[in-house]
Amino acid sequence: MTNGIITDMKSLRVPCDECAIEDIASIESELISAMNASETRAAGLAANQIGINARVFVMVNGSEIITIANPKIIRTFGKQSASIEGCLSLPRVQSMVKRSVKVTIGYTNRSTLEYVERTFRQFQARVVQHEIDHLNGILMIDREIKR
What sign for the dihedral angle of Cα 145, 6, 115, 25? Predict the structure, then answer.
């Protein structure tokens, strides 16, 4: 563990369970605290990265933080783009990963606690796919392509 962030790959490879609606707010709070305490700026953080077995992640979107619970990828669109990714759970590791540039997900909205669908593009689509991979027990090094 580094600054509250799980770095043990065995733990990170365990897929997360669905999150109970009543737990979303408290998990969100813990995720935001962990992101703020990190010495490295993060675009997102999944619950299992701080030792919580729940399908929840937070991500930075401009000046706001979006909380996404129980996400499922509904559709990926068109082309993929390769880019270098980093991860708080894999300090000092960078991987070239190919991901869809547009993705639609379904999830429980933190504010309304209702199921919503939303499409993310470009960098935000990459973050969403990276964090959902975490919740599924998949690490960026598992998707690394040769440079």
Answer: negative
